[in-house]
Each structure stands twice: as structure tokens, then as C-alpha cells.
Amino acid sequence: MQKRRHVPRAVLALVTTAVVGVAGCDAVGGDSPAPSRTEARPSPKPTPTWDRSPASVVAVGDSITRGFDACTVLSDCPEVSWATGSSPQVDSLAVRLLGKAKAAEHSWNYAVTGARMADVPGQLAQAVTRRPELVAVMAGANDACRASTDEMTSVADYRAQFEDAMATLRDALPKTQVFVASVPNLKRLWEQGRTNPLGKQVWKLGICPSMLSDPDSLTTQSNQRRDTVQDRVEAYNEVLEEVCKKDRRCRFDDGAVYDFRFGTEQLSQWDWFHPSVNGQARLAEIAYRTVTN
After folding, report:
1. d(Cα 186, Cα 141) in Å, to the nearest integer?
2. For 74, left (φ over 0), alpha (ψ -120 to 50), or beta?
3. Mean pLDDT, to the nearest integer, of 120-140?
4. Rounded CA separation 139/141 (Å)
5. pLDDT tens per residue across span 162-195
6. Structure pTM?
7. Could you tell me where the DSSP H helices lie in the chain?
8. Which DSSP helix (H) or strand (E) runs through 91?
């Protein structure tokens, strides 16, 4: 009887030892020691989340953002600006984001007709006093629209000026978001406007002569001049994209404005070059889509 009781106890002891040994091996992964809690890796820092509902908007840039020639000939019309305008026909970026009432008090337009990228840092120096949550930038058409192709802003200077503009903003407002619109396809605008006699008369007043002078000429020299302007615009857009990508709170439109095929309805009835009210509305759509996606 004692032997019969003794044997099961010995067997039980062996089985228990084996089970504990197997469980311990599986728990720590083979022969590896158990992990120490003090060796836990720190959590990565979260990347900033793009705010699709900013509470205020500032616009900087040139005549397009001022609504030039959209309402009357050779005049600004900021109420139809794609960025900050109040016109229901446009439904501007600010109105779409903030609502009509709030946009009237929390959006500002510092763009200036005729401005080039070199002017944008100064515009932003004024704009940062408003402490906006979103800045909309469209500048570069006037850098290409000079008296001649030799006078166009160089790509290197354009890059340095845009970087200066971003630095001006970041020094004052490191967390403000930026929407950057591409420079429009100027050759496309020439192709559309050259069919209108009135528009060509207005072009003679000095609107983008590097592209629009001798609009009916199709000589090799004229075509080469227009292609030179177009190549420069494309280079500017590459700069905008590259510089914007370096800033975690910047969004470029991926060339959407450049790619947009402005037709006669989207061009000013006075100069057939600047956006009409309809064209401003299309620009607002592009901007809103980029900001909210």
C-alpha cells in the first residue's frame, strides 16, 4: 500500500516539473530571458494632423487673388476673390471653410495686383499680425509676365524668395497651415484669349507682354518666346512643390490650377486673361478640395 501511494507522488512531481519547464520556455521564447519593463521603447512622436476646419484665413499673392478685371475693366474686385471674396457667385475658400458671417470677420486679403514672389514675404509680414490658422498663397504669374523673357525672375531667385516667405511665416507662426496654388498655364490663357479682338486690344496696354505680345504671330521666334515663358512657369511650379514638401504644415495643389483648362466662361470679358467670376469660383473649388481632402 505504501509503495502504491509513493509511486504516484513521484510521477506527479516529474509531470509537474515538466509542465512548468515547458510553460516557462514558451513564455520567454526559447532560451531568451524574460523582457524587462525598463527596456520598453518610447512611443514615436505623433505627426501634426492637418486641420480641415481652420478658424481664420489670410490670402497673399497677385492680381488673380485680388479679382482683377473680374468685375470692371482694369480694376480690382476683391469681393469675388477665390480666396477671401464674399460673393455668393464665387463661394470663396474662406466662405466655404468659415461660413459667410465668420469669413467677413476672420479672413483678410493682402494680395496686391502686380505683385511677384519677391513681394510675398512683405505681404506675409503684414498677414501674421492677424495670426491666421491658414494662409493661401498664389504668386508667380507676374514673375513670368515681364516685358521680355530675359526679365523673368530666375528659378533660383524664385526659390529663394518663396523660401524667404515661408521663413517669414514660420518665424512668427510655426503652426499655421499653408495652401499653395500652382501658377496658371499662361500659354493656355493666350490660346483662349487670342480669339477675342477686344481682349487683344487690352493686352496691348501691357498685360503679360512676354506671353501676349504679337498674339497672332505664329513665327518660330514667337512660338519659342511663348515656350520659354511656359517652361519657366513649369519650373516655378516645381519649386512651389519642392519647398512646400519640406514644411509639414504646407499643402501644394499638385498642379491643379496649372492643369485647369480655363475656357471663355472662366476668363475676364475685358482682358481675356485674368479669371472671370466663374473662373474665380473654379479656383475656389480647387483650393477647398485641396484643403479639406
Report:
1. 8
2. left
3. 98
4. 6
5. 999 999 999 999 999 999 999 999 999 999 999 8
6. 0.83
7. 2-28, 93-98, 100-106, 120-127, 141-144, 155-172, 186-193, 197-203, 209-212, 220-245, 256-259, 277-292
8. none
